[in-house]
């Protein structure tokens, strides 16, 4: 706020740049942005006088210009010597159209091309519309103004659900848990999902069919994990890379999450548990701040001691997902000693037992929300 006798001086653009020590960015800066995202440089640690630091000259990624009719050839030739290529051509110059003309046989060592878009279901580019869509789990899709999107409760469906446990998997991910295999493995529709499609199943079947195609469209979140899929012979084409390429994730933490962490730690035998509980109690108080801009970083930092031994904390907070496997069944060995009618009756009992002990999607979702600990504390302490 200015005082009444304050003097306001108007600055020219040149004066502003001089005061701000502003350096204009070259037009090839998107190449450097992508390089920094994909190949981050390690930051030196320690203490030093900044005035004595000698900075190396700025090295930018190579810049290429090409005629529009040679775009595909330029991409192909660039990938011979570079792993990552960013086309910074202006909007409306036909990048998406030309991307739809790509085929694996144009490149050495490429067997599949995946076009990645935040709206992969509703591409409008003609050359991309015949690309196979890589399915994502959903509870059904509805058509709104000519576009398919996930249906909300009560909305009419244009595409039936391909996974009855979509909500349970989403609940686990809301707990910052990426390993959701147990949800699939305990599903009574698992075998049907692998081999056919119907209302509430078929995600795995349709996904397997999609991977038979050499050209795919996919949402970033639908891409398989590098731990489960070999990308060495796959070319990824990102639409609007600054929006679709995510380098961070958001975990929402409430006072209830803090209380749950305190409860688990207080019942443990950790030697230094009171120090951690004190930190969490301070954080609990800070979470009472409902301001628009959220918590002040320095306020959080001041509540955290310089050193907290988290060696044993990770094992303590690791979620026990075995509680989601409630399925019971007759042991295989029991079938070895029976034949004929007795074996058929035992099979019937086994089927009834599995059905009675299998939780439906809503029950699993409630159990996750009620009993599975959100995985936030370790990352929170590491970041601070």
Q: Can you characterise this structure?
A:
It is a single chain. By secondary structure, the chain is an alpha/beta fold. About 35% of the residues lie in helices and about 5% in strands. The chain is built from 17 helices and six strands. The strands form two sheets. Strands 2-5-1-6 form a four-stranded parallel sheet, with no helix packed on it. Helix 5 (about 165-175) packs parallel to helix 16 and helix 10 (about 255-265) packs antiparallel against helix 11. The longest helix has 18 residues, at about 340-355. The chain is flat. The model is unreliable at about 45-55 (pLDDT under 50).
List the helices and strands and how they pair.
Elements: H1 13-20, H2 29-38, H3 71-78, H4 95-99, E1 112-116, E2 132-133, E3 141-144, E4 147-150, H5 166-174, H6 181-185, H7 190-195, H8 203-210, E5 215-218, E6 234-238, H9 241-244, H10 255-266, H11 273-286, H12 297-302, H13 313-317, H14 332-335, H15 340-357, H16 361-371, H17 377-383
Parallel strand pairs: 1-5, 1-6, 2-5
Antiparallel strand pairs: 3-4
Helix pairs in contact: 5-16, 10-11
